[in-house]
Amino acid sequence: MIAVGRDVMIGLGAVVYRMGWGALHGRPILASKVNTLLQILYISLVVLRAGFGMPPRSVIDALAAAVTLTVLISGAAYLREFTGRALQIAAQD
Known about the structure:
Elements: H1 2-21, H2 30-52, H3 57-92
């Protein structure tokens, strides 16, 4: 659920930025790429565990924590990046 919240925040932020400051030239940040990789790995391991009983639950729990951490880090990084850009543009006007 937290990943969906981050994606909604990024989407709404992009709309607000576009309306207030113009064209948005976004690009994925490293934390977001790592997060996507961890999410794919997490889902794969959950499916593997459901089908074959492995890996251990502790591995899935640790990966869930890593996914949560990278969601928070990437969300904060996007917020910082685009807030900084907007403030820079506002200071020039």
